[in-house]
């Protein structure tokens, strides 16, 4: 069921990255992994669960799951650039969860860190969106 849901809501691939974004143009972008050769299955499950839990508006649980994904990624031995990009995506997802949970300072901090790691357009979009929403 989750696999079908991921395929349904995934909007497209990012370069050769195995991630996709979900959300409409004006909203935050949540990244999911479609096919990962970089990440361990435990990381992929945690990463995707984070995005799906944010999407289902369970922000406290999403924050915990995203934090777990970030911790698992730190242990990953994949290609360094890919690990950095996925870390950026996980931080961005957690930042969105935190902002939606009204933990604005922690959320914006995650988004700034995500942009520092990777200036990917989806991550940058989330930071811009948060700054606008929080009137920064």
From TrEMBL:
InterPro entries: TPR-like_helical_dom_sf. The keyword Signal applies. Keywords: Signal. Residues 1-23 form the signal peptide. Gene3D superfamilies: Tetratricopeptide repeat domain. SUPFAM superfamilies: TPR-like. This is Orphan protein. It comes from Pseudoalteromonas arctica. The lineage of its organism: Bacteria, Pseudomonadati, Pseudomonadota, Gammaproteobacteria, Alteromonadales.
